[in-house]
Every structure is written in C-alpha cells, then in structure tokens.
Please model this.
Amino acid sequence: MPIHCWRRSISLSPSEARLGPVGSPPDRLPQVGELLVKSVILHHELGYVVAVAPSTHRVELDTLQGLLNQRLGLATENEIAELFDDCEIGAIPPVGAAYGLAVIIDESVAHLADVYFEGGDHATLVRVTGGAFRRLMKDAHPFRFSRHA
Model:
C-alpha cells in the first residue's frame, strides 16, 4: 500500500482511523452508502478548492458559485494529477488542507458518526470516526451544496 503525502500530514490514532481494501467481500465491508464521501476538485480565478460531499450526491455548481460568489469549474484530470501527484485520479481524499487547498464540506456529512473515503488509490478505503473527520475538516466551510443523485 503506498504511503500518501496526506497520511504523513495528519495524526489519527488506530481507534480513530482504519484502512482496508476497497474490494473486501461484502461480509467484511459494511454497506457505507451515504457515509462514503467524495472529493470534487474545483478551480476558480485564484486557485482551487476541494468540495466534499456524499458519494451518492451530485454537487450543484450553481449553488456553490452563489455561496462563494465566484465562478467555479471542474478541474481537469491534468490539473488534479498535478495537485495530487501522490494520488490516483478519482481517488482523491477529502483532506485538501494537507495539499494547501481550501475545503468546503456539504452539511449533510458534517455530523456523521463514521465517514469513509478513498485513501489516494482505488484499493484503499479509509474509515474515520466522526470526531476524527471533524478534526480533519476543522478549517472547512460547511454549506448545503449537493443533492441525492
């Protein structure tokens, strides 16, 4: 399993975070549903922002543009590869602060008891307690900007 830059920049105890294979048999991998969050990388005039929302939701760019009062667009795969050079495309963890990026978080995930996310590759699923996730997201701005797809 690769050691990603973001893992070196955060401190979580073994009781707060667990790493496991994404492809575990169903009896070993819980049904995570809306507990699984995704990172959507957006660009704007001054740089980039990481939008964190449930994986089952669609990010509403128009809503975010209104909330942030900025024009936003989806970052390209090349931009994402440059920003997150230690991660696979499509497996970006929600810890934008570890990469010097601002993070906005959908209110629907801000108070979950447990949160799951891809660990920088498509083979690793990370489970963190809600308290640990809130600490990771302590500088994130909570908004309502997604809806169930």
In short: Residues 25-29 have pLDDT under 50 and may be disordered. The CA atoms of residues 86 and 100 lie 14 Å apart. The radius of gyration is 15 Å.
